[in-house]
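Weekly modeling sync, notes
Attendees: AB, CL, MP (scribe)

Item 1: holo prediction request
CL wants a bound-state model with NAP before deciding which constructs to order. AB pointed out that an apo prediction alone won't tell us much about the pocket. Agreed to run with the ligand included and paste results into these notes for async review.

Input as submitted:
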Amino acid sequence: MVVKFDLIAATCENMGIGKNKDLPWRLKSEMAFFTRMTSETSDQNKKNVVLMGRKTWDSIPAKFKPLAGRINFILSRSKLDVQNYKDCYSFNSLQEVIDKLENEKFKDVYENVWVIGGSYIYEETMKSKYFHRLYLTRIMKHFECDTFFPKMNDNLREIRDSRVPEDVQEENGIKFVYHIYENPDFNK
Ligand SMILES: NC(=O)c1ccc[n+]([C@@H]2O[C@H](COP(=O)([O-])OP(=O)(O)OC[C@H]3O[C@@H](n4cnc5c(N)ncnc54)[C@H](OP(=O)(O)O)[C@@H]3O)[C@@H](O)[C@H]2O)c1
């Protein structure tokens, strides 16, 4: 099995993803979509990995930590104390993450790897040869943000996925659309 990164993010019109260490919006149905996509596996004996930066980890409320039903991977330059959390690992570099994902024993345990932010982790994984797809929710509204999604490569191809609704979604008067972009260079 080749390591494969699927990114999942939500951006507003100005490509913002965060504000004051939190999401700039509250969209329950979009959050439910995130949970479903990152949790679903075809093999009931396996879980998905969710890979995130330390600040994204910090932004998760204590009662939702670690993200349930998924194997939580956190990138930090410090050694994080995550031993008390089930299915939770910390890594000092993306290379360490890849080494773990390529470990023969660990390969039996996980199915997909979802990169869930923030900025740096999206940027590094999109630059890597393991970048497969970006599941991007485009929120059709401007929000003030202090953290932004990195520049996307021009060669990405928009595709469809039967698990993802194609029509415009709406919650609390805020419209948004789920897009999927595929890296044509993946696995070449
Ligand atoms: N809209 C969305 O889809 C979405 C998704 C995720 C997050 N967010 C939002 O985005 C914000 C957080 O994102 P962020 O971009 O500020 O931070 P982040 O990427 O979550 O975390 C940054 C941290 O990751 C670690 N890191 C970065 N580069 C590293 C490297 N090369 N090696 C090892 N560790 C490294 C460092 O941790 P240390 O400082 O511990 O060394 C760094 O401070 C929050 O507002 C959050 O709510 C939004």
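Recorded for review: The longest strand covers residues 131-139.
Action items: CL to compare against the apo run; MP to circulate these notes.
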